[in-house]
Design brief:
about 160 residues, alpha+beta, five-stranded mixed β-sheet, 6 helices, globular
Length: about 160
Amino acid sequence: SPVKGVLRVCRNFLYAIQERNTANYLKCFSDTARGENGFVFIPSQDAFIQHAAIFADWDATSEKNYFEKLRISTLENTPSGLSFSDERRTESSDSVLFTAKYSLSFFHNKPFSRTARGYAEFLLARNSAKGTWSIQRWSDFKTTTDSSLTWSDWKALFNQ
């Protein structure tokens, strides 16, 4: 069922972040090498305005580079994690739209907040040949008017 496949991807995504495992993190995204559509990330509007050049060609390789830099910048033996709240799922026959507020925390050594917050919209699609699910499109939104950072901000800052 779509729900089981989507829950599996979300659980794997959470574990990959918690364990700081780049390979497992990337398995959560659709990949043309597996016969799927390419992965698309749509940054928050503020982050896009500030870092248009970084996000202009964002792809799975950019995602990998960001996560590797985040992982390397994180202090050893410190917790990292992601939590979702206000989760919603909208299902169709071959896709599910999963939306939620998020809080992402890493004890990194960079001169900015160790927590990113916002609202994420994940479009998960089913690979019809394999029956597996993956994140095909990820849209990020800022939920506050203050200077707090979104996930998009982190992606840009770790890619500089």
